[in-house]
Design a protein that fits this description.
- The protein has about 350 residues and is an alpha/beta fold.
- The protein folds into two domains: about 150 residues, Response regulator (Rossmann fold), CATH 3.40.50.2300; about 160 residues, Hypothetical protein af1432.
- Helices cover about 55% and strands about 5% of the residues.
- It is built from 15 helices and five strands.
- A five-stranded parallel sheet has the order 2-1-3-4-5, sandwiched between helices.
- Helix 13 crosses helix 14.
- The structure holds fe (ii) ion.
Length: about 350
């Protein structure tokens, strides 16, 4: 039996393929309704199994097209959905002509039971005429909006949790770096507000600060904990952490815009920093700001090899290095913002 699967999730397609090929089916796959429709028209399958939410053409529209098409309308159509929102979705799918409706996670036995039932019933009867185009669209929009809201919430939660886990993992590396990223984020956010950045930019600066030293996960603990200053060889190893950080986060699409900030947070305004020796405005803005907040926290927190200095001494040091290590304009924004204890 030839089965066509339409699903945008490669893992779900893979599992479905395993279930179906184990029973001797010949399987083809498409990642959205539009491609699935083209596949079905090119070579009509014996059965279609389709997800609901897909980009470009969702499962409902795909189902509607199949059941309207002379060549395809008799092909049994199994509709399945990841998030069950009451019986509205099933009613809608059935009103559009779906012969079966399954809620994810799909039970292989249930799927196979439905397939056997459909095969025993013979070729599907032509679908009922779809009435009330507007009613369909309204119902469909409600379902999609609900699902999208749910997905956005889930993604945001996952994304924040992932950031927290990464920061906690880094904090656990060394008592000397514990809390550093969170403090750097607080200082940089204050300075960004003082500099008049918009909220979107400030949120990305905060995220970049939280993850700026994430590459230190790959740096040997004894270098982070060393009670004396690092020698040249040891410093050369530590200098790899911006690029290691980029390597760690580059797999995550949502972090792609903060990569330049992470890679260049140790560049100097005069071009004497690392890893690339960029200078002036060619250093990404967020990286220039992180550099100041990072150094401020390094100066005002105890280190294994020296004691912390007070706030005003640290501000003086920032001004002394303004124009060489730091962007002079941002140093003034940073100092103007102050560094009280309030968290943003
Ligand atoms: Fe760093």
């Amino acid at each position: 039996m030839k089965v066509l699967i339409a699903d945008d999730n490669p893992n779900d397609r893979y599992i479905l393929r395993l279930i179906l090929t184990a029973r001797g089916c010949e399987v083809r796959e498409a990642e959205n309704g539009r491609l699935a429709l083209a596949e079905a028209l090119a070579s009509p399958p014996d059965l279609i199994v389709s997800d609901a939410l897909m980009p470009e053409m969702d499962g409902f529209r795909f189902l509607r097209e199949v059941k309207r098409h002379q060549v395809l309308m008799r092909i049994p159509f199994i509709f399945y959905s990841a998030v069950y929102t009451g019986d509205n979705e099933e009613k809608l799918a059935r009103s559009l002509g779906a012969e079966a409706f399954i809620v994810k996670p799909m039970d292989p036995e249930e799927l196979w039971h439905e397939i056997e039932r459909l095969l025993a019933a013979g070729k599907s009867a032509p679908s009922p005429a779809v009435t009330g185009e507007e009613a369909y669209l309204k119902e469909y929009s409600n379902i999609v909006v609900r699902k999208l809201e749910e997905k956005v919430r889930e993604l945001e939660e996952l994304y924040l949790t992932l950031t927290r886990v990464l920061v906690t993992t880094l904090d656990a590396k060394s008592p000397w770096t514990k809390g550093h990223s969170v403090r750097v984020a607080e200082y940089a956010v204050r300075a960004a507000v003082a500099a008049g950045f918009d909220v979107g930019k400030i949120n990305r600066i905060k995220l970049a600060c939280l993850l700026h030293d994430i590459g230190k996960i790959g740096t040997y603990d004894f270098l982070l904990d060393k009670p004396e200053r690092l020698n040249n060889e040891e410093f050369a190893v530590v200098k790899l952490h911006p690029d290691k950080g980029v390597e760690i986060i580059s797999e995550i699409k949502q972090f792609s815009d903060i990569i330049p900030a992470i890679r260049h947070h140790h560049e100097w305004f005069d071009g004497c920093g690392y890893p690339t020796g960029l200078a002036g405005d060619s250093i990404p803005l967020h990286a220039r700001l992180i550099s100041i907040a990072d150094s401020y926290d390094a100066m005002t927190a105890d280190r294994p090899y020296r004691r912390a200095i007070d706030r005003d001494s640290a501000f003086r040091e920032l001004r002394r290095c303004s124009g060489s290590q730091f962007d002079p304009r941002l140093v003034e924004d940073f100092i103007r913002a102050g560094t009280g204890d309030r968290c943003y």
